[in-house]
Specification:
There is one protein chain. This protein has 131 residues and is an all-alpha fold. It has one domain (4-123). The chain is 66% helix and 0% strand. It has eight helices and no strands. The two termini are 26 Å apart. InterPro entries: DUF7674.
Length: 131
């Protein structure tokens, strides 16, 4: 298994207290990572956003356990703070959207899903991936 803690420590020292809790899983960390992303979106902190989304995408590209953890503990929740949806959409790689969209479909009413689809189409026209 990939050592996500080492990579997280290097990229996200501000979450060191969470990383150091050996009893906490990557799911807990990814939930905390999303909270950091929310703060960074609100503060327009592009450096933190780059590190957060970069780490989440790295997790997505790893072996199945870590990839699935990134989907259910981070990406599934990226539109939970609905007022930030315009800020979040550009940060989502197409390959991630393809995998997480069925979870959004299950969780949301059709109107919300249609709005997210529209936003993603604006930032990622067909044939073009984001970030």
């Amino acid at each position: 298994m990939v050592d996500w803690r080492t990579r997280a420590s290097a990229l996200l020292p501000e979450l060191g207290a969470v990383i150091e809790r050996e009893s906490w899983s990557c799911h807990v960390f990814l939930s905390e990572l999303w909270q950091l992303a929310l703060e960074a979106h609100r503060d327009d902190d592009r450096d933190t956003l780059t590190r957060v989304y970069g780490f989440a995408h790295w997790c997505f590209q790893q072996e199945q356990f870590l990839s699935n953890a990134s989907v259910v503990s981070f990406y599934e929740h990226v539109f939970d703070e609905w007022e930030l949806r315009h800020l979040v959409a550009p940060w989502l790689p197409g390959e991630v959207v393809d995998k997480v969209r069925p979870l959004w479909e299950w969780r949301w009413p059709a109107e919300r899903l249609a709005e997210v689809d529209r936003l993603l189409e604006e930032v990622r026209p067909p044939g073009r991936n984001a970030v």
